[in-house]
């Protein structure tokens, strides 16, 4: 059983379902003020590229690459968002495939650094990101306005 990765629209109904599953998993882990989940269809201040993993006839996981469009002289920030693999498909390398697809897209767009924010209670995700070469960093972008002690900020240079 191998996964196929597809780039898709932010309004894809199965992407919406997978993100709802992610939210249902994360809501009990963090207080409301620490919940960083975003609605990918509402990101109008930048570009969003969404990826989904399909295993046989099921959509098994998703991830989104968000490129901010800051005002003024600020540099755009590329951020990994909404990475999720359904528990039935974990341990099969699907998250790594999704992240690889985002990194490849980032390179074709001419960007070098990919940032992410995750929660302190998501140890398996943190371990995966570290295994893939992501290192902890300071809060970035909008997170600088109010860094959350329950957040872990990471970055990798993909160029």
UniProtKB/TrEMBL annotation:
Record Pfam families: Acetyltransf_1
Database matches in CDD domains: NAT_SF
SUPFAM superfamilies associated with the record: Acyl-CoA N-acyltransferases (Nat) (SSF55729)
PANTHER family associated with the record: AMINOALKYLPHOSPHONATE N-ACETYLTRANSFERASE-RELATED, AMINOALKYLPHOSPHONATE N-ACETYLTRANSFERASE-RELATED-RELATED
The organism's taxonomic lineage, starting at the top: Bacteria, Pseudomonadati, Pseudomonadota, Gammaproteobacteria, Enterobacterales
Gene3D superfamilies registered for this protein in UniProt: 3.40.630.30
PROSITE patterns, A to Z: GNAT (PS51186)
MF annotations from Gene Ontology: acyltransferase activity, transferring groups other than amino-acyl groups
Keyword Nucleotide-binding: no
Domain N-acetyltransferase, residue spans: 6-159
Keyword field: Acyltransferase, Transferase
Protein name, as recorded: GNAT family N-acetyltransferase
Originating organism: Rahnella sikkimica
InterPro entries assigned: Acyl_CoA_acyltransferase (IPR016181), Bact_Acetyltransf (IPR050832), GNAT_dom (IPR000182)
């Amino acid at each position: 059983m191998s996964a196929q990765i597809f780039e898709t629209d932010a309004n894809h109904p199965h992407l919406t379902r997978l993100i709802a599953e992610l939210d249902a998993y994360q809501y009990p882990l963090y207080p409301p003020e620490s919940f960083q989940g975003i609605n990918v269809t509402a990101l109008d201040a930048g570009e969003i590229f969404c990826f989904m993993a399909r295993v046989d006839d099921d959509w098994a996981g998703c991830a989104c690459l968000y490129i901010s469009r800051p005002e003024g002289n600020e540099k755009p920030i590329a951020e990994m968002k909404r990475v999720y693999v359904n528990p039935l498909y974990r341990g099969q390398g699907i998250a790594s495939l999704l992240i690889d697809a985002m990194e490849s897209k980032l390179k074709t767009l001419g960007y070098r650094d990919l940032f992410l924010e995750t929660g302190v209670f998501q140890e398996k995700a943190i371990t995966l990101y570290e295994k893939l070469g992501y290192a902890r960093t300071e809060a970035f972008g909008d997170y600088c306005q109010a860094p959350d002690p329950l957040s872990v900020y990471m970055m990798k240079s993909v160029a």
